[in-house]
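debug: dumping io for the single-chain case to check the tokenizer round-trip. Nothing else runs in this session.
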Amino acid sequence: FQKKIMYQARAQMSAQERERLRVERLKARNEDRVKRLLNAKLRIYGRDTEALEEQSKMKQERLMAERERDLALDKKRVAEANALKLLHKEQEKQRKLDAYQLAAYHKEQQQAKAKRDAEEVAFRRQDGRDRDPNTLFLHFHGEDLGVKERRKMQQQQQQEWIVEQMKAKEEARKAEAEMNKRYENYSGAIGGVCEGAEKQKEMDKLRRDMEIQEYNRQLVVAKKMKEKSRKAEEEKQAQEEQQMTATSKLLTEDLNDTYMAGNPNRRVPYHFKGFSADERQRILEEQRLQIEEKEAMAALEKEENERYQEQQEMYRRQLVLLEREKMNEQQREARALAHFHQSQKLEKSIQKKHLEKAVYQNPVSPEYFEQFGKSCR
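debug: decoded output
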């Protein structure tokens, strides 16, 4: 038996249910629209993207110019620091040269006698001899006749040496003062250059700030003018819409304009104004007939399903009876087989007893097997 497939018609929704579903769909669409409008990444209305891109480009150019200027100033500072380091090295080299020349001068101009006297004085101080001038004649082994001329010549030489040393010190002092003056002038020049660079940087920053302020002011003015022109355009469009609403045949609800010229029973799709009372009544009547037809089809389908269920129940009961009969037959066969096995067992036991009693008259007793394995003594 093959089951007949029937399609069940869907129940017609009421007008209130359809209106409720329409309102829910409208709310869902409005929620999605609000989320989309409030997303700043997707919403581009109300933003001047060209002005923002131009500002970003100007800012990048300004940062690049500042970076290049800072690099140039850093290179200039490094060069000036290197020059100052070289100047310090030259000054130190000049001082060492002056000290070397002074030592060479002393070495060349110092007389051997003065050096010898200094060494003897140091020697006398080391060995602890008497420093009394009255005992110095003991070192000459006699009277020194040229002591006055020698002393006078020594005093004159000392005076000349003092004058030369003072002159050399004065020249060294003047050279050092000149070197310090040159260093101060160079340091002042470096400071002036750095100060000028800092002032120029401040002036450039002030000029850029003023340019940015002027650009922002012009941007605000342009935005206000654009907003004003937009409002004027919106007002103009609103007036045109009001005029069109008042004069348009589509919005004046003239039903005579909705029928087709070639077929008075059909309406123009784009001029449809809605149904009249008779048309609505005819549509409602048609819907009522459709509902009755669907109800009749549903009743017919229900009756057919009931008949199908009854037939299925009959088949199920017949199958149950057949299954019971089959089980009873199997049980009878099992009992017959058990009876046959029981009779076979009984027959076998009778044959065994007959063999033990009638055929084998002298059977071996258990004592015969117990005698094996025992001693003969």
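debug: round-trip ok. Helices lie at 15-38, 49-109, 112-127, 147-247, 277-359, 366-370.
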